[in-house]
Amino acid sequence: MTTPDQQPGVVGVLLAGGRSARMGRCKQTLPWVRDGRPTTVVAAAHDTISRHVGLVFITVGLHAPAIRKSLGERAATFLDVDPEGSMLESARTGIEAALNTGASRILLHLSDHPAVRDITIERLLDEDARRFDFVHPRSEGRGGHPIVLSSTLGRRILDEPLADGLRSARELPNTSVLAVEVDDPGIHLDLDTPESWGEGLGSI
Predict the structure, then answer these.
(1) What is the CATH number of the domain that holds 34?
(2) For residues 108-120, average pLDDT
(3) Distance in angstroms (rounded) separating the CA atoms of residues 200 and 191
(4) Cα–Cα distance for residue pair 15/45, rounded to 1 Å
């Protein structure tokens, strides 16, 4: 059953396969607060996108058991990836899984970005953005996450070399790009270190 916010044909991909080396522990399972309720970082990131999509795929690696436990009963399909692999490799695994379900759009998010606002997701997925291949939020002159990919661009990402990772996808010939201006510091909040986690909690 879909909710009023879920958009037909949109599949979510949450990247959670990294080693959390800079954090020194599994960052996805650190405490967080969303909508005034205690949760974890990865659960908050999941909830950020799940209310807008029909399916959620989550890539997991070294910390897979802890991440699965942290998500509780939340609906998701887990995809095992190499924890030593690149973010692009992890993204390709998720994108391929989404395309195999017949996705028309892919909402690609990072598990260490738990503070993105619902209105930002709504704007990335609204009707005006659907004709673009690569849609991303921008605030204060900087781009952020999550991003939305067309199925056409998703298939190209699987095959192109993309020397600079997903950023390179924007430069592919005949790729239309839309930067959506938002008032949302959460698109930049990247919990890579204990300091960034502490600062993020303090800003909620």
Answers:
(1) 3.90.550.10
(2) 94
(3) 8
(4) 10
